[in-house]
Write a structure and sequence with these properties.
eight-stranded antiparallel β-sheet; alpha+beta; globular; 12 helices
């Protein structure tokens, strides 16, 4: 599970000591407080380490990932170049009881952005380093090597071929190690990196602003694709539903029950195979002899169908991130959305960002899952804090709910952005 993200000198976020994540994490705060900036760092790490999905156009090089992160624009606005931006990614894995931590420092220069240092190590005060890159000399990477097989063996640091300061050694180093004279069981970096990459490869990101409702309605994907996860724009919805229905028979009933919570007259929503070996969706309602296609269904209903497929899926990603899922939805549907979010968190780790007071009201009894982005004493910089019943006991005892406090800009939950 992803445990912590440490940030220093990055845009408007001040989180040098990190912020430990839960299984379920609700991000709240005003516009411009850094919620999307935090998520963009996770997306950068995912793009840099994991092969791109079929809808993203192939693999991405480290250099491209740095460009998409924002190059020199990632430097906090109160600092001047040259300066360094620091990211620390911490994970909990059963195979690594001390945890794993990947540290990355970037030199922000007027001429561009370069990798300054890279470490992969145990997440403890006196760590065992699996690899270091650019640590003493630019372009030079070293890895720990066992003198003989097994973790009880002594280790030494072995230098390997040079890596460009525009590339991540974590990405490039395995290619160099394949040519090493040491067998893989002598190099613990292989195991630690594999655990990290397998986890990050499973991360998936959605932003309600990027869901293309017109494309979703008109989509007719080919039969035969193996997609089990909705693409970021939602265009493979019929194919994902078809595959999940085939793979898990209970999911079809679960999804239709979910649709009845928002539209009680729903009888059945199902993929429909067309004569051109493609798929579309049809929606059946009680008392209606004719079925409806998505082109005849409201925007909010199509959005809720997408969130239900994502959140209720029996095959979720290892980290599910959704920005502003309430966009375009009726406030009366927030209780159902809340239940789906909680159900997803029983199967995987979830991050949700929201501006919906109605959704926040549902989290009044789950304040420990709410991460609030609040202004620091330095204007324009925000930090993260976890809410608690003790922090808000006076307001809660007076009958306030979390959404009420958000509506009035209560400073305990972030307040207004000015």
């Amino acid at each position: 599970m992803f445990k912590n993200l440490y940030l220093r000198n990055y845009k408007n976020l001040f989180v040098p000591e990190g912020f430990q994540l839960n299984r379920l994490n609700l991000f709240i705060g005003p516009n411009g407080c850094g919620k999307s900036n935090y998520i963009s760092v996770l997306e950068f790490f995912h793009r840099a380490l994991a092969p791109a999905g079929p809808w993203e156009g192939g693999d991405m090089e480290s250099d491209q990932a740095l460009t998409m992160l924002g190059e020199s624009r990632i430097l906090s606005g109160h600092l001047s170049m040259p300066e360094r931006v620091y990211f620390g990614f911490e994970f909990d894995f059963e195979a690594f009881p001390k945890g794993l931590r990947y540290d990355l420092e970037l030199d922000i220069l007027k001429t561009g952005v370069n990798v300054s240092t890279e470490h992969l190590a145990d997440a403890i005060a006196d760590p065992f380093f699996y690899f270091k890159c650019h640590d003493r000399h630019k372009g030079t990477c070293v890895v720990s090597v066992y003198d003989s097989p097994g973790q009880d063996s002594r280790t030494h640091l072995e230098p390997f071929a040079e890596v460009s300061t525009r590339e991540l050694g974590l990405v490039k180093l395995p290619k160099f190690l394949e040519e090493s004279s040491y067998p893989p069981d002598h190099i613990p970096f292989f195991k630690s990196r594999r655990a990290l990459v397998e986890a990050v490869r499973g991360w998936h990101f959605y932003n309600a602003n990027n869901m293309n409702l017109g494309a979703i309605r008109d989509a007719a994907p080919k039969i035969g694709g193996s997609d089990l996860l909705l693409s970021p724009n939602g265009e493979n919805l019929p194919l994902v539903m078809e595959n999940l229905f085939q793979k898990d028979f209970d999911f079809e009933e679960l999804l239709n029950l979910a649709m009845r919570t928002i539209l009680p007259d729903t009888r059945r929503v199902r993929p429909l195979r067309t004569g051109q070996l493609r798929l579309s969706l049809e929606w059946h309602f009680t008392g209606q002899s004719e079925s409806f296609f998505l082109s005849e269904i409201s925007d909010g209903t199509v959005r809720m169908l997408c969130w239900a497929v994502i959140l209720l899926s029996p095959h979720p990603p290892s980290l599910l991130v959704i920005e502003e899922p309430e966009l375009g939805l009726h406030p009366a549907w927030m209780p159902a959305l809340y239940e789906w979010i909680c159900e997803a968190a029983q199967k995987t780790q979830v991050i949700i960002s929201t501006h919906s007071p109605e959704l926040l009201d549902r989290f009044t009894q789950r304040l420990e899952d709410v991460a609030c982005f609040k202004q620091t004493e330095h204007k324009g910089l925000f930090t993260m804090t976890r809410l608690s019943h003790d922090m808000l006991k006076d307001q809660l005892n007076a009958g306030w709910e979390l959404g009420d406090l958000y509506r009035i800009g209560d400073p305990d939950i972030g307040g207004w952005p000015w």
